[in-house]
UniProtKB/TrEMBL annotation:
It is found in: Mitochondrion. The keyword Iron-sulfur does not apply. InterPro entries: ATP11. This is ATP synthase mitochondrial F1 complex assembly factor 1. It comes from Acipenser ruthenus. The keyword tRNA-binding does not apply. Belongs to the ATP11 family. One of its GO terms (cellular component) is mitochondrion. Keywords: Mitochondrion, Transit peptide. Pfam families: ATP11. GO terms for biological process: mitochondrial proton-transporting ATP synthase complex assembly. Signal peptide: none annotated. Its main location: mitochondrion.
Amino acid sequence: MAAAMVHMCCLYRGMLAVRNTGIRPLIPGVAPLQLRAFSVRKEPTLEENPFYSKYGDKIAQLRRLKPQEFEACIEKRRELKRQPLGQSQQAEFIKLIEEESEKLGKRASGSGGFSKDKTLGSILNVDMVKEKTAEEIGQIWMHYFATKDTICAIIPGEKFETMSDRGKNCPTFLYALPQEEGYEFFVGQWSGNELHFTSLINVQTIGQNAPSQLILYHYPELQKDKGIVLMAAEMDHKFLDVTKAQCLANQVQLFYGTQHQETFHLVELFNHKPADFKHMSVIAKLEQTGISHPRA
């Protein structure tokens, strides 16, 4: 049964139909039984994916303008469907994600509407704050973004150093965003001091043309003198709101900034030992730590 469920998870890559019982696991790092007890059912078509409607226009455009590329993506799904039930294809699946997200990360500015070469100086008068304390700068930063439809943060320099170093060695990870029906997965890809997110269904259907739907910009200009790194974000509001973007940003600090090696080990597995990585471990960690948001 467990093997069959793992196989279904790999096939149904846009979303995992996992019930959220609100019960925390008794053993840290282990998903509670209620999270794993969902039934195996017929492999859904792409159109049956609950999140398909959000991306239907882009998928239809790819199908119309680049039919060969679209068919190639769909054929990869068919290949997985032809595998015997219970045979896990996680390693091959994660390899595909890495290949496509690497191409995504090399695109400097993501999708249309996002800023290019966004610098700290374009937001903050750096010279004017040189004499201010880190706390004062943080207050200015938070006040500036308080009325804007986005998210921001002040990250301690040491924590960002840890996150940045880990991002260089493990640039890609799979994040689970709680929704009314289970979880929608997003691929996060580090590109220098930027972290680009796109939905897994985008990677699945559009590949290297998948647009960035959320970008976290990290500004280390004040790290040496003030001990802080400023973060601001841009998002595609057609697909994400501030609450959901904050949930993803919180997960970055959870998985990349943690002092608990067993938590970051999930990121290492995803990047270096994909055959050992389990989707449910990410969900279990979110349930354990309580990082979530009000479901849509």
